[in-house]
Design goal:
single chain; 332 residues; mainly alpha; Rossmann fold; Tyrosyl-Transfer RNA Synthetase; 2 domains; 3-stranded parallel sheet; 13 helices; 7% strand; binds tryptophanyl-5'AMP
Length: 332
Amino acid sequence: MKDKKLIFSGIQPTGTFTLGNYIGAVRNWGPLQDEYDCIYCVVDMHAITVRQEPAKLRQNTLNSYALLMACGIDVEKSILFIQSHVKTHAELNWILCCNTQFGELSRMTQFKDKSQRHPDDVNAGLFTYPSLMAADILAYNADLVPVGVDQKQHLELARNIAQRFNQRYGEFFTVPEPYIAEVGAKVMSLQDPTKKMSKSDENPNAVILILDDKDTIIRKCRRAVTDSESEIVYREGKDGINNLMTIYASVTGKNFADIESEFSGKGYGDFKLAVGEAVADHLEPVRTEFARLIKDKAYLKQCYTAGAEKALRYSQRTLSKVYHKIGFVDRV
Ligand code: TYM
């Protein structure tokens, strides 16, 4: 590896991803495999920063692994693994925590949001979450990190941590760049299009899950909050329509001008139905492939075991060099 640029990204094991996860991140991961060396990871260690039910976490992690494969991650081309299987992430996290400032972590908007949502469990892991994310990325010296807009601040912190380490101990870490899609980097809630679409939304109509069946997807699109006008155009102030246009553009490959002429003279009802149908049809192969893969537990195990071995071998080399650089005695 390393003659091509290296990509790293991760996703939390929520079981079934939202359309936001899919459009903003995961759907871009597959096509990158031909041009780059890619490493992708289901981040179960990040997931436990909020309380999880153990049996559900285990099931969701397996589902997420299979779902990434169903979304086009090819284990022959990329390294695909489960974060907790590769101990170097936790080990590097400790080193990076000691090179991250309390003030920096306090400024993270996701920490502020999540601590407000879970006031009874503002744990230290939730606080140091971005340092573990930096460890994920820096353990492989990734060049590019494909994420949605909501992860930009965390990535900025990972860059700062890498730069600070390099200043203290000599040039070592690659300073990673965010890789953010032009369309769909922030898919909004269908019920409040000023908020991002998020699995934790209490209103199920706000979120399309990529394993939702066709009727459910159409129903959610039909109920999407729009405005009191009637024109299908992408314009400031039309948050609901802008969001539906973004979704439609992402799954059909059409641009906004094409969409505006396609629906000129038509009503919101027609447009919402077309969006729902296009999304459902686009996701149909993902659902079919997921249903096939999730039945084959032995194959999944073979894939994630092999993925973890490769990831461990790779990241262990980085970690050993880091240990040496900071002054730990070489073990061998
Ligand atoms: P997570 O699991 O919340 O989301 C996974 C990916 O989906 C993107 N995303 C969205 N994109 C557009 N619109 C939305 N509404 C939307 N919601 C989510 C996220 O930006 C992300 O790219 N901390 C990370 C996981 C992580 C990671 C990493 C990512 C751990 N280590 C190292 C990159 C590199 C997270 O919780 O993503």
